[in-house]
Each structure stands twice: as C-alpha cells, then as structure tokens.
Design brief:
- By secondary structure, this protein is an alpha+beta fold.
- It is globular, with a radius of gyration of 50 Å.
- The protein starts with a helix and ends with a strand.
Length: about 240
Amino acid sequence: MVPARHAAARTRRWPVLFLLLILAASLAACDSGAAATRSPAASRTASTPAASAADSSDPAASVDVLNPSADPAAATPDPAATPDPASPDPAASPSASAPPGAADGCTGTDKNRAFFATVAAGVTWDVYCPALPAGWSVVSGSYRLSSGGKLDISYKGPGGRTLEIREGAFCADPSNGCIADAPDRGAVPFGDRQAELYTAPNATSTAVVDRGARVSWAVDTSDVDEATLRVFLAHLIKVE
C-alpha cells in the first residue's frame, strides 16, 4: 500500500507536467509558422551560389581577352582607319629625286619633277618640262635612256584639254618626224628654242623642234587655243 504522502506528491506533479507539455507545443507551433512565412527570395539566396563575375549574359564580360578578335566590335574594321591605297603615279617610276632647283617649276608632284631630273641626268640632249596653270595634272609618263633616250609624258586639264610632250629619239621615221600632217602656222617659241606650229581643223596642234632629226622635241595639244598654247610653249622650262 502506497503511503498517503507519496500519493499526494504525484498528484501535485501532474499539473506541472501538463503545463510543460502545453508550453513545448506552443513553441513548436511558433517555429513552424516562422519557417512557413520565410520569403522565397531569402530561401533562394541561401541555396543559390554567388553569380560569376564573367556572367555570359553580360556582353562585355564575354570577350575572350586571349583572343581579342572574338569581340565582334573588334573584328569589324573601321573604314576610316583603313588607309586608302595610293594610286600609282605613272610618271613617278624613277626613284631618283631631283637635285635642288633642277625642276622646281615643273607642273605635277615632286615625283613628277624627279622624273624630268632623272631623264635630264641620263641623256645628252636638253629636257623640257611644262609650267602649266592650276587644274592641270599628269596622266602618264615614260622614258628610255638607251638608244639615244626618249621621254613621253601627258597631262590633262580643265574641260577635257590635253597636252603631251615627246622629246629625244622618239621618232624612227624621218620622212614626217612622227608629226601628223596639218597646216603650218609658223614659228613659235619653245622654251629657249624655236619650233614650228602645226594646227589641224579638229582643234589639235603640234609644236615641233628639229622635225625629222634623230633628236627632236614636240608638244601635242587638243582643245587648247593657239594663243594659250603659245603661252605654254614660251614658258617651257629647261631642266638643268
């Protein structure tokens, strides 16, 4: 038989245990509610690794620094940075440069002037170049130093005008001097020489020195009036 005092003690402990059970249940319910109300973003932050600094969604970060051409912008040439290729100067084939003052007044570029100086240094006859007004430029040119030497250079001017100079042993036919038949207009200056002027009805003219000789000089023009041509001929420069 259980003593009366022990039975009373057990009776007093039941309310205490009951209260503890209720408190524990309440705490569990609160923790569960807090977990249920936790934000989805916070949950993802905890489970998603940090984004890489070279995220492929960033175009700037996708450039391969070891291969810069992988950048589409870098692979596209800048038209402004691409130098245009210079057109070859047909009268600039000689590589020698003109001595100071030798052909400074000749129409054209420095290379055109060097062209005349090179021929003058390589032949025994006088070389002449034109001093044309603005708007005239070299079209083509060639020379030969062997077999007596010869020079041929042509120019274009405003309104389709043309001028061609032939010098040296350019003609192998002494019968006509390689000059087209045309009415003789008489003597005209040719630098420090005298020439004969031939003008055809089709507005072409030729001034020639020593026609038919082994070495001769000729200036052919088209659409250049006689008065203007006389001025051009008078201002021909002898290249020293």
